[in-house]
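Following up on my earlier message about flavin-adenine dinucleotide. Here are the inputs again, as you asked, copied directly from the submission form:
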Amino acid sequence: MAEHNMNPVATADRKTLVRALAQVLPAHALLHSEEEIRPYECDGLTAYRQLPLLVCLPENEAQILAILQICRRFNVPVVPRGAGTGLSGGAMPMAQGIVLSTAKLNRILTIDAHARTAKVQPGVRNLAISDAVAPHGLYYAPDPSSQIACTIGGNVAENSGGVHCLKYGLTLHNVLRVRLLTMEGEVLEVGSEALDSPGFDLLPLVIGSEGMLGIVTEVTVKLVPKPQLARVIMASFDDVVQGAQAVADVIAAGIIPAGLEMMDQTSSQMVEPFVQAGYDTAAAAILLCESDGTPAEVEEEIARMSEVLRNAGARRIAVSATEDERLRFWSGRKNAFPAAGRISPDYYCMDGTIPRKRLGEVLLGIAAMEKTYGLRCANVFHAGDGNLHPLIMFDANQPGEFERAEQFGAAILELCVEVGGTITGEHGVGIEKIQSMCVQFTRSELDTFFAVKRAFDPAMLLNPDKAIPTLHRCAEYGRLHVRQGQLRFPELPRF
Ligand SMILES: Cc1cc2nc3c(=O)[nH]c(=O)nc-3n(C[C@H](O)[C@H](O)[C@H](O)COP(=O)(O)OP(=O)(O)OC[C@H]3O[C@@H](n4cnc5c(N)ncnc54)[C@H](O)[C@@H]3O)c2cc1C
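Thanks, got it. Here's what our run produced:
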């Protein structure tokens, strides 16, 4: 594996850079005082902070192109940013780089209700798309819990998911076309508005590329008709493993619910005083299973799911009777993160994905780790997708607790890999899980990722040092994965 230089050396000082950027941007689009750039020092992963050299807020594609040209000329790294809600540090600034925010490109360009598509700029908020197309009886299906704030550009970069992605797919399955600018200034249009596009299908490569291949400047999304009715079941289980098995049973019965989420008792007890969602806080685990469609479809599916859940050992089943009650059941799930913030000074949200049938044993494994690391962990997650979100609670003011939380998180991800899963589901790798990439991938796989990165960005200036670990980073991690008895990077010293 070749060593990849991810720390480019800028060839201009800050003043020269500001002068050059001021030629192409209006004054209000260039932030450089400490007061102005402080809000950009981190994203949702607040444990890591770094002030950038400066922040650019372009208002159109031509300005983005001009910024990229200047940064190329001076070898200055560029970190793209949407709303900064990312949880893996993908938009974390670099000390020698600029932050390029696409928040001001926030126009919905076209809505084609007939074709059920919308073309939007990258800074449009996820929920704003659904709001805008609601008069046509349509909506944009992927619904991250952060949808009120996060942008479609960020969603594309992270391949974001949400409660309804089990049935309707992730961002990848709901985006038809993406326009992006590479660091070299090339305009790329990937995907198409037809069912297939000519040439290699680069859309799945670009979606989920964490701002490392290009700056997204336009996105064409699919829209789906709003279902006539939706109802949700809340099922209580006395045992987490039983609840986990019920998830597998629902899918095995051939049912794809509109949402299939699980919350353990720590989560329901943390959320209930906060939002009064009506949860059974005595249960070891609750499942929320949604059905949507025509009233007849919903009635039939709710009956089938209830039967499967009862057979799996559910001791109580409540079905939302009204739309208000349905929203109340979901409000607890959607507010789980803020609720954790009320009971713990700090928390760390992990994101790993495992085969559904291994859910029970992994939850037991996490419970055992709570004792090993002396920290509490709440589990609230997209159970139908096998996408875990353990919330590790800690107090950063207590010496050693943050480090323990990080080790706890890394151990969970290693367990995910061990059972045949992955180290991320929807939050991306960013800087948070970059070490865990050494556990998941072989050196030649990591080399291939670098080769792809170089094909789009030979100078390695766009969001460098994210998502793909260098050889030395893996060596320093010191916990290199031994897969099938083979020690990886044997030539490197262990630290
Ligand atoms: C309370 C809370 C709940 C959340 N719930 C969910 C959830 O249910 N599901 C889920 O998937 N995520 C969730 N997230 C994570 C986060 O909201 C998503 O990852 C979201 O897609 C990030 O969008 P953003 O606009 O904030 O992007 P940012 O955080 O600003 O950036 C994220 C990444 O995208 C890149 N990027 C941003 N804009 C562009 C662009 N125009 N071109 C190229 N790259 C770009 C950045 O460089 C970075 O790598 C949650 C976060 C919070 C705080």
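One observation from looking it over: Residues 370 and 376 are 6 Å apart (CA to CA). Hope that helps, and feel free to reply on this thread.
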